[in-house]
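Here is one chain, start to finish.
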Amino acid sequence: MSEPTYGEHYHSPLMNPKLSVLLTGAAGSVGIEVLRQLHLSGKYRVTAFEIRTRDAVRALWPFRNEVEVIHGDITNAQDIESACKEKDVVIHLAALIPPAADEKPELAYQVNVGGTENLIRALEEHSPKAFLLYSSSVSIYGDRVAEPNIRVSDPAKPSARDEYALTKIAAEELIQKSKLSWSIFRLGAVMGRHKITKLMFHQPLNTSFELVTREDTARAFVNAIEKRDQLSGRIFNLGGGEKCRSSYEEFLERSFEIAGLGKLDFAPKSFAEKNFHCAYYADGDELENILHFRRDTLDSYFQREREKTSAARKVITSILRKPIKYFMQRSSEPLRAFRTKDVKESQHYFHT
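Its structure:
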């Protein structure tokens, strides 16, 4: 097979499509799974929109004969306009996510808010009857350690310094004010192809943690296409449900055991005590009752993680566990604030 060329656009549309679907952020963790499920359904003519990077081109290359792929920048109005003509449904996943979103707030605003505004304007002009499905986030609810049961009716109250959450709130407002038919899904802790970053230490260990796999998340977006009338004008919390719940500490302990990292034995004050997000979705079953997207449980998620971790890799990780965890701990900003007696930073991460 020849290598992909890194051009802007390649196209091989499905014949006689039932509905035309635009997917933004198509090469992301959730996006590529949505694309896979849309393709497997065989029901839709799909346009995949994604910024042009080597990784994105390679991720989308296997779908080149089945979908239209447009490589463009959502912050460029002309790029997204070319993808918005004659669309029936739009699944909008494109976003700059943490930690990059919090480290580069101006860029996060340009992508997550400005990009959404560009998308809305293009759809209102070229596909005014399109149905827009937007991927928002549990982060908008902020720190819920003390009140772990979240409902859609709860106020948006993002944690301090959570620039990503602020962009999601602003994008939600733009969508609700638009002339389009829309629905918003506020995603819980999506797991799958998950990368460990310094944010691991930002989450309090006693957080009530409800994960949802990327497979189930994608299934919700795909199933939503046929349920547009029931979803229109409404906001939903999207989580894995009661069988996907644990404490954050328990989740990490099981993850470490599978990886060969041993116990969760970091130094005291490695983990923050406040100012993050995640909790249980008390009303998450409402979306499940409409879309029937849940297949996974906490146990099935961890079983897949075990199957993906080879015995050789686990042995090597086990041998190197001390230096690995040493370097992980070095990335802990809460611990650094505590050890350097940085009052401002300590007040951000800790109760005392």
